Amino acid sequence: MPLNKSKTVYALLGWLSTGSFSGYDLKKMTEQYVGEFWYGSFGQIYPLLHEMLRDGLVTVQTEQSGSHPPRQVYTITDSGRDLFRKWLNEPPEPDLYKSELLLQLFFGYLADPETLRKHVQESLDEATRQLTEYGHWQKTIPKQLANLPNLPYILITLDSGLVAVHGRIEWAKRTLEMLDTISSEPQLKKKTKR
Asked: Which of 77, 88, 121, 125 lies most in the core, judged by the most C-beta atoms within 10 Å?
């Protein structure tokens, strides 16, 4: 499989390196555990699995479980492991960061300061919610995933999220203070009303 295809393939190969899973399991785990920092095309998981099967990166078996409908369970092949290891050794592409809020703030002199303040407060509220969620994960993931060999690495990515969300909270609080100062300056108030 050429490396210019969807990088979500590597998230799937990573999970399959830890065991065999159905497409539903892979989608659920990918969204739950890496969705915070990997915006892959999760809706494309089944088409990607079909491509991976065609390219010999995975095999599939139908499993019947009691009265439940049969499910397709995917297992990584040696070729899939080789491709995954090759990808792990390649330098990652630079992180892309887009923020509509920062774009709005950049041109904020043309906006109503109260509207911007509302946007930043919403960002602060969301970051605070995420911090609570990450704190919960910090307590539960070591128990839930205790048998995975990559648990320390999962915790490293969680720590990155914790540091980032702390930074977003600090930035939002400072920005709200700055917006309060800006909105109290009469000269800037006049400019924003044009």
From this structure: 77
